[in-house]
Write a structure and sequence with these properties.
The complex is a heterodimer of chains A (601) and B (204). With 601 residues, chain A is α/β, with parallel strands linked by helices. Helix content of chain A is 33%, strand content 17%. Helices cover 43% and strands 22% of the residues of chain B. Classes of the chains: A alpha/beta (601), B alpha/beta (204).
Chain lengths: 601, 204
């Protein structure tokens, strides 16, 4: 039956039909929907894990236990899971194990761009790359066959445009009945990697890569399409689709086995064409593989090695390189004068707003700071940030953050800044899910080394940025069921933090006094700021209103950066129906004339 | 048949993704190859949304290049202007009369009035249709049905059976809203028919 599926839906359905029994993940764009879709199927265990490393360890354990397992994550998630990934590459598996890495070229929703194809040769793990949803669906079964045949985890590498693009899939299978019962075969030589055992496994890895190199020569989804022999394009993933669009009459070698690559197939293809061209997104990964075979190939000399590709970029490069003629089309002159952008903002009613508003207004002062009316400046405080919706607080007018690098880093960075001896006060800002993911270890470091910084945990009861998945602190499972929740306050107290407060996210006065006291104490301290995400728990609300008699258009309410508040053409402050009303009231709390209330009168 | 490229643009929360899902499904049900790709970034938080739908005999790239859009469907005026360089020469721009002023307006980048938006679109195509979506929404008593009104409008231009549209809308829209959505769809199609016959009359 033909179905229109996104790459992530196809990966999930393919895994389900391949008989996957255990699937674990941590949410991260563009990978999140893989596990969300698997959670719709019965007869399979799914979980949101604490982080990607745990997810991969859970999947690894399940594979040791003889069943088919998978772990899915975004590109930077595999950095977190790298230790486990390299570990299971050494031990191999029992039941099949597939690790899905969904990369984000162009950084639609990521802090960095990296080409995770590098992980395959790095860890000596075979890799498959789908070029559309149909490939993704079919490749899951192949991935498990390869995993079990060669005793290895398999890396399935997707990208945003594969994971989130919908295309037609011929769904022609049903769920494969499990061929093996769960069973752990005791084998310390295989599973206990003391150096003596690891040295033996190291040889097994070499042997398996040799066998895989022969195996991929006849892999049915690697595909040659003959056209003109003047140009032969070698490509994989979404770049293949752009290449097909741009090079209308070239010959094509589409690769889905991109580690190891089918060397003989590539050589024989190259012999048949006058010029070999590699079209790929991000690193010159395939180009290097092709060149290692002694083939003279073009690639990154005309295709950028950063950012997301699209047909325009591939076409412009190919025209410039003289590979295709330029064609007449509508000029792509930009709109002028520039149009106002529409950047993402913290939502109206966001529980992060008041805390982030407060942090720059605690009354501290940097020695060199100049005051700007209605602007908080740096507020004499360095605020280390983390990954989540609250990262948007970096935008004006909140300007709330000074750093954001990777999951959990806010705490470690704060500790380091303190130990560097800077003059300003220091606070770390981290969300509940990110704290669970990798903030806990930083917090334990703070206690152990008694470094006096303040950690503000913004607990909105969900993993909001990726679309409201449960996490250990929210106590909602991957199937949306209410389960045990980890108590944040007990956790931080149990770790040895003595100065702990829990606050209502919408109480500006309490936020200011409590965070200020915690920062001034100079002790290791934690402030938990609690308030529901308005998109997660929607409540019917009556927007607040402005009393025109009282309002003098001082615009202080605009400094909270709420998308529900704007200035009309007549200069009046207007509150739109995005406002969540009495559930928030931050603007009313900052208004010096008390002009904002539940009614305009 | 040459591939048809439709770009639907708007603001997070306007129903752009559901509309492009429905269009992609009707194209598949009509026997075409189809690909669809959304640029949503962090759009739930009020950002720009653009959804590419391409269908025809065989579609490779899910993304439409600049100057390659056959139909630009704007759910909001400013967003229509923003994406206008993607229009093919003489591509068709279908724009709902919806204005959502972003918070980032400044003297350098003021919010364009409709006349200015129309002029921007006019740089790329002569075929611009302003859909009275607010009026239609009020008339059918469902302002949330903007996406189906616009689907109705574009249906006038596409060779897809009415029945296929109806069946897909039934499948994709919650039962409670199916009746009003089908009314909205028909009203959108009618609006297109009227507007185009007026244009033809004027030409005579």
């Amino acid at each position: 039956m033909k179905q229109l599926l996104s790459g992530n839906e196809a990966i999930a359905l393919g895994a389900y039909h391949a008989g996957v029994a255990v699937a674990a993940a941590y949410p991260g764009t563009p990978s999140t929907e893989i596990l969300e879709n698997l959670a719709r199927y019965e007869g399979i265990y799914v979980e949101w894990s604490t982080n990607e490393k745990v997810a991969l360890e859970v999947a690894m354990g399940a594979a040791y236990g003889g069943v088919r397992a998978m772990a899915s994550m975004k590109h930077v998630g595999l950095n977190v899971a790298a230790d486990a990934f390299f570990g299971v590459a050494v031990t191999g598996i029992n039941g099949g194990l597939v690790v899905v890495s969904a990369d984000d070229p162009g950084m639609h929703s990521s802090q960095g761009e990296q080409d995770n194809r590098r992980f395959a040769p790095f860890a000596k793990v075979p890799m498959l790359e789908p070029a559309d949803s149909e490939d993704a669906y079919k490749l899951m079964e192949w991935a498990y066959i390869m995993s079990e045949t060669f005793d290895t985890p398999v890396l399935l590498r997707s990208t945003t445009r594969i994971s989130h693009c919908k295309s037609i899939v011929d769904v022609n299978k049903e769920r494969r009945a499990s061929s093996s019962q769960p069973a752990f075969k005791h084998s310390p030589a295989k599973y206990v990697m003391i150096p003596a055992n690891a040295r033996v496994r190291r040889l097994a890895m070499e042997e398996r890569m040799g066998k895989l190199a022969a195996y991929v020569e006849h892999f049915p989804l690697n595909e040659i399409t003959w056209g003109s022999r003047k140009v032969g394009v070698i490509s994989s993933g979404i770049a293949y689709q752009y290449a097909r669009e741009v090079f209308e009459d070239a010959s094509f070698l589409k690769l889905v086995t991109t580690y190891p690559v089918p060397a003989e197939l590539i050589k024989s293809f190259a012999r048949e064409v006058e010029k070999v061209v590699v079209i790929e997104e991000l690193d010159p990964y395939l180009e290097e593989q092709v060149k290692l075979l002694g083939i003279d190939a073009w690639g990154k000399n005309f295709i950028p090695s950063y950012g997301e590709l699209n047909p325009d970029i591939v076409e412009a490069g190919a025209v410039k390189a003289g590979l295709i003629p330029s064609r007449e089309k509508q000029s792509s002159k930009p709109v002028s004068p520039p149009l106002p952008p529409r950047p993402p903002l913290l939502c109206a009613g966001c529980p992060h707003r008041a805390a982030e508003y407060t942090l720059r207004r605690l009354g501290f002062r940097s020695p060199d700071e100049k005051r700007v009316p209605n602007q908080a400046g740096t507020g004499g405080i360095v605020i280390t940030g983390d990954i989540g919706c609250y990262t948007l607080g970096v935008m004006p007018p909140l300007n709330a953050l000074d750093t954001t690098a990777c999951m959990g880093a806010s705490i470690g960075q704060a500790l380091g800044l303190k130990r560097a001896g800077i003059e300003e006060k220091i606070a770390a800002v981290i969300g509940d899910s990110t704290f669970m993911h990798s903030g806990i270890t930083g917090l334990v470091d703070m206690v152990y080394n008694q470094t006096g910084v303040t950690v503000v945990i913004l607990d909105n009861g969900t993993t909001a940025m990726t679309g409201h998945q449960g996490n250990p602190a929210s106590g909602i499972s991957a199937r949306g069921e209410k389960v045990v929740s980890v108590d944040l306050e007990s956790l931080v107290r149990g770790a040895g933090v003595k100065n702990v407060s829990v606050l209502n996210a919408f109480d500006l006065t309490a936020l200011k006094s409590t965070i200020k006291a915690a920062v001034e104490s100079g002790e290791p301290s934690v402030v938990i700021v609690r308030g529901d995400c308005p998109l997660n728990k929607r409540v019917a609300a009556k927007p607040l209103a402005v009393n025109k008699e009282l309002c003098n258009a001082c615009h202080i309410c605009l400094t909270v950066g709420c998308p529900a508040i704007s200035v009309s053409d007549e200069g009046d402050i207007v509150i739109s129906d995005l406002c969540v009303g009495s559930a928030c009231t931050i603007c009313a709390q900052v208004c010096p004339r008390k002009a904002i209330g539940e009614t305009a009168g | 048949m040459k591939n048809v490229s439709v770009l639907m643009v708007g603001v997070g929360g306007q129903g752009v993704i559901l509309a492009s899902d429905i269009l992609a499904e009707v194209a598949m049900a009509s026997g075409y190859d189809v690909k669809k790709s959304d640029s949503i970034g962090m759009a739930q938080r009020g950002g720009s949304v653009a959804s590419n739908v391409r269908f025809g005999e065989k579609v490779f790239s899910p993304l439409i290049g600049t100057g390659e859009v056959d139909y630009l469907i704007g759910f909001e005026e400013l967003e229509s202007a923003r994406w206008s360089p993607y229009l093919k020469q003489n591509g068709i721009a279908i724009v709902a009369d919806v204005v959502l002023v972003p918070l980032t307006i400044s003297e350098k980048a003021p919010h364009p009035e409709w006349e200015r938006t129309k002029a921007i679109l006019g740089e790329y195509t002569k075929k611009v249709y302003l859909v009275p979506a607010s009026e239609i929404g009020a008339e059918i008593g469902n302002t949330r049905a903007l996406n189906v009104v616009l689907l109705g409008f574009i249906s006038h231009f596409l060779d897809i059976k009415q029945e296929t549209w109806r069946e897909t809308i039934k499948e994709k829209i919650p039962p409670l809203y199916v009746q009003s959505s089908i009314r909205a769809f028909k009203r959108g199609a009618l609006s297109a028919a009227k507007m185009i016959s007026t244009v033809k009359e004027a030409k005579k």
